[in-house]
Amino acid sequence: MKVTEHIQNANGKTLFSFEILPPLKGQNIQSIFDAIDPLMEFNPAFIDVTYHREEYEYVEREDGLLEKRVVKKRPGTVGICAAIQNKYGVDAVPHILCGGFSKEDTENFLIDIDFLGIHNVVALRGDAVKTETYFKPEKNGHAFAKDLVEQIVKMNHGTYLDESLENSACTDFNIGVAGYPEKHMEAASLEQDIYHLKKKVEAGADYIVTQMFFDNQKYYDFIEKCRTSGINVPIIPGLKPITTKSQLSMIPHRFKVDLPNDLVIAIAKAKDNKEVKEIGINWCIQQSKDLMKNGAPVLHYYSMGKSEVVKRIASEVFKD
Ligand code: FAD
């Protein structure tokens, strides 16, 4: 079923979902099942699987010269999605990027997942790779997520790049896109970012999933601004429980989101990461309960493979 159909069928009840990362290359898919199994009792409506493009590394050769090598650290998004749908019967939502994909690669990726019975995707631009200062699209690829959404919508209407596919059946993807309650790091202002978010929705995005936030008021203000600007699709809040002290600096640095002062002070006072984890879990439980009370369609957890943490939260929030 499509993500937006899950939301419609829930009749206002808040759904549970989460995101997982493919395991590091060389590891076993069992680690994915081990992360999902404890969360199945909360009936996830869907499970997102992130996509990780290849990175470039400079490796010293025997002759002393540096050679640029391609490394893909977390392959397997498509295979994991297929395995999830087969094993659990839960809708899997692969993320797909502009970065690293030509338009032909995108078409082939979408044909693959369509064959596997996957009908949900989150369309993203992706970040710059480590060797770039700014994001660079692939040759004959897309520069912005909006352009990727347009290509998916065209396929949903039976228009393929490969003209020999002209009479093929249309795909039927439900499309999610990213939204940023505290604005995307490259956007000049939140208003500009919402302007571009609206373009993604006008291009055909069916729903929005937000970047993590730790102050619910930021999400409520974001929703109000989106609605005022004419964005009417569901906006799913993304939630991440803090579990280590180092995340106090890592999260604002990497994701450009603020942490509320009360949370920072409580974590700074904690004597070890065991205590930090308790504070992070309790904070996330309070956030979740408040979001649920205020009608969030889905609570979407960035689990990062820490299912015991998400389980603790879901046990409190999704009791019935
Ligand atoms: P876009 O919507 O294309 O926006 C990028 C920037 O360009 C924004 O600042 C926007 O305001 C601006 N912009 C948009 N259109 C225009 C235009 N026409 N002209 C000028 N400026 C414009 N990354 C991964 O690598 N893998 C993942 O699986 C992944 N999953 C994610 C899931 C979620 C829910 C979120 C919130 C992020 C995820 N990311 C992932 C990170 C994401 O790829 C980055 O945040 C990326 O920098 C932006 O992607 P986007 O789709 O929001 O880009």
Automatic annotation (TrEMBL):
It catalyses: (6S)-5-methyl-5,6,7,8-tetrahydrofolate + NAD(+) = (6R)-5,10-methylene-5,6,7,8-tetrahydrofolate + NADH + H(+). It comes from the Bacteria. One of its GO terms (molecular function) is methylenetetrahydrofolate reductase (NADH) activity. The keyword Oxidoreductase applies. InterPro entries: FAD-linked_oxidoreductase-like, Mehydrof_redctse-like, MTHF_reductase_bac. Keywords: Amino-acid biosynthesis, FAD, Flavoprotein, Methionine biosynthesis, NAD, Oxidoreductase. GO terms for cellular component: cytosol. Its EC number is 1.5.1.54. One of its GO terms (biological process) is methionine biosynthetic process. Pathway: One-carbon metabolism; tetrahydrofolate interconversion; Amino-acid biosynthesis; L-methionine biosynthesis via de novo pathway. Its cofactor is FAD. Coiled coil: none annotated. Belongs to the methylenetetrahydrofolate reductase family. This is Methylenetetrahydrofolate reductase.
